[in-house]
Structures are given as structure tokens and as C-alpha cells.
Amino acid sequence: MAPSPNRGEEQMFSSMKLFLRSVVLAGLTISPYAQTTQPSANAWSEKSKRAAEDAVARKIEMMRAVAKRPALERVNPSMREVELVCTAALTGQKVGDPIFAGLETYVTDDLSAETEPLKELTLGRFYPAKKWPRYSVIVELSVNSKPEHPVYTVGVARRPSAALEFFAPLFFDVPFKGINEWKKQVTPDCKNRKTETSR
């Protein structure tokens, strides 16, 4: 007949059970939390995002100045532009603005690079300053970006005057027809993205 455990052994076994139970519970709690808080490919600080967008804007202004073109007015991006560029960053696909056709996206690891889309939007003959006096910049981390080697999806939009942009849908062949078609391109993770209210 096996000897019954003494009181000290019982206390030791009880303590071990409590410890193991706490470890299991902690693991169950931490695991889903880690999964739900995993940052997405385009999750980064507002400060870093602002700095990246400012770098592209400076490049645009320099290119205009060197080419002796009149300066453009930089404005906050629209919700449409923000959501479309976010979608391009997450999917790796190019997107465009189906309403004004003034949005181009490209991928780069050098925000100071003079890419062909940037040259076209900044200096191209299809965007005379009188008709397209404004522009906006959106930069997101690309889906292929890595901490040790950031890769960016850049969206630059040439914009008509504020008045024309506001009233343009009235002059469609069928007023306002297809005005929200662009939303079908937007991935769920990019819906209702915030735009900056001040600069």
C-alpha cells in the first residue's frame, strides 16, 4: 500500500496546480490579444506619415520651381483619395480617381525620387496650372514594407479649383451618376479613414 502524501507535499502540489493554471490562462488571454493588435502593413505614426508626405510635397515644389512653373496650392486630401491610396498600399494594385482622373499612385523606397507618375502629375501637359491649381499628397506604408527597409505607396492628386470640384457632379451627362462608384474599389480595412483637418 502506497504511503499517503504528507501535508507539505499536498501544499506543494496545490501550489503547482495554481501556477500551471495561471500560466494557461495568461496564454489564452495574451494570444488573441496579440493577434487582434497585430499592426497592419500601413499602420505607422501620424508624425512619420506627415513627414513622408511633406517630403513628397517639397519634391513637387522643387520640380515646379526648377521648371519655372507657377507654384501649386497644397490642400488636404479628400476622403476618396485617402481611401483609394490606402487600398493601393494594402493590395499592391494601382488605383485612380474615377471622377477627376487626377490621382496617380506609385511604389517607392525613396520619397525624393522623380518617378514618372510624379513628373507627369507635376509637370505634364495634361495638367495646366490654370485648370489644376491645387494638389494633395498621401503616403502609406506598402504591404511589402519591412521595418529595416520601408517601402511606400505614394498617391499624388492634381485637383481643380474648390468651386469646380464642388459643382462638377452637376455637369455630368447625368448629374451625380456614378458619384459613389469609387467606393467599390475600397478594401474594408480602408473605409472611413481619417483625413487631416489642418496643416
Element order: H for helix, E for strand: HHEHEHEEH
How confident is the prediction overall: mean pLDDT? 77
Rg from Cα: 26 Å
Largest sheet: 4 strands, mixed
Described by its quaternary structure, the protein is: single chain
- Counting helices, strands and paired strands, the structural category is alpha+beta
The proportion of residues forming helix, as a percent range, comes to 25-40%
Q: Care to count the β-strands?
A: 4
Number of domains: 2
CATH class of the largest domain: Alpha Beta
Principal-axes shape call: globular
Q: Any low-confidence stretches, pLDDT <50, length ≥5? A: 23-42
Examine the coordinates and then state which fold CATH places here, giving the name of the CATH topology of the largest domain. Answer: Pathogenesis-related Protein p14a
Question: What's the end-to-end separation, in Å?
Answer: 83 Å
